[in-house]
Structure to design on (304 residues):
């Protein structure tokens, strides 16, 4: 009779490691039919409303003579310069203001939180009535801007839309006013994701608010800031509404941008190929911006 304890004598049971069920990519019968039924409408929509218009636009705008004609047009040179100013000055000034304002809205006071809700209203408004309102506020002596200048200072205000630079500046101000709350909210969310331990350690070391901003906030938000800047520049280059509805290209088409110039050439002048060429001429700027955007989105690491 064996004296070995049954728990000692028992052999361990070999358990097979758990493996997830294999996914079989090959569908048969009704499953294949349903899969095709769901995929085909989306494929047709993509071909009809994305692939075909893009391919057709590239085809009709592929003639080199169109670009030679555009380069000889003084309105195109002005539109290209205006677009560059929009994408450069308006984008960077708006993003820097959004970075500073996002820090203001992180303060823990009830009236600042309430002000953040009010601050978001311009972005929530529809773009067309907002820009049309800007247009009417800047028209002549009976516009709101000149009326306020006359009431407060007793002088006649400038004719905002009869000078190229004041009209272009009005377009930029209207665009910044409309989209600054959106980018402020994005950077505000980025600030809220920064661990508070970093700021607490900086406070223990006696770091000032400026040093906390330079050595903690800026390095952590650098990737997000660059992504937002690139995306904003891409949107501005393709934006039509601000320049069209605020200044309308006045005076004498000197505040046109590439987006409005392409639409006017295609529909007002009846030259769709030239209009497409004007829009495609922005690709040398858009393609590097898209590449930068994709590469920065793929960046996961944060260096402090």
């Amino acid at each position: 009779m064996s004296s070995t304890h049954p728990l000692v004598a028992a052999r361990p049971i070999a358990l097979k490691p758990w493996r997830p069920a294999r996914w079989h990519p090959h569908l048969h019968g009704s499953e294949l039919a349903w899969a095709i039924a769901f995929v085909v409408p989306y494929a047709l929509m993509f071909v009809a409303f994305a692939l075909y218009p893009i391919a057709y636009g590239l085809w009709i705008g592929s003639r080199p003579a169109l670009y030679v004609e555009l380069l000889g047009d003084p309105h195109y040179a002005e539109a290209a310069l205006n677009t560059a100013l929009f994408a450069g000055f308006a984008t960077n000034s708006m993003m820097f203001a959004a970075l500073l304002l996002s820090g203001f809205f992180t303060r823990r006071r009830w009236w600042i939180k309430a002000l953040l809700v009010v601050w978001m209203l311009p972005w929530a408004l529809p773009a067309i009535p907002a820009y049309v309102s800007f247009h009417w506020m800047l028209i002549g002596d009976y516009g709101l801007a000149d009326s306020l200048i006359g009431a407060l200072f007793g002088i006649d205000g400038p004719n905002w839309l009869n000078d190229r630079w004041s009209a272009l500046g009005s377009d930029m101000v209207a665009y910044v006013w409309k989209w600054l709350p959106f980018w402020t909210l994005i950077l505000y969310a980025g600030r809220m994701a920064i661990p508070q331990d970093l700021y607490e350690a900086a406070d223990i070391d006696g770091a000032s608010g400026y040093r906390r901003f330079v050595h903690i906030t800026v390095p952590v938000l650098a990737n997000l800031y660059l992504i937002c800047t690139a995306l904003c520049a891409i949107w501005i280059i393709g934006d039509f509404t601000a320049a069209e509805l605020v200044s309308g290209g006045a005076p004498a088409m000197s505040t046109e941008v590439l987006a409005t110039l392409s639409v006017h050439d295609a529909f007002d002048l009846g030259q769709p190929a030239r209009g497409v060429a004007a829009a495609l001429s922005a690709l040398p700027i858009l393609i590097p911006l898209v590449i930068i955007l994709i590469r920065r989105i793929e960046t996961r690491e944060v260096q402090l």
Summary: Confidence is low (pLDDT under 50) at residues 1-15. The chain is about 70% helix and 0% strand. The chain has two domains: 29-60, 73-298. The two ends are 71 Å apart (CA to CA).
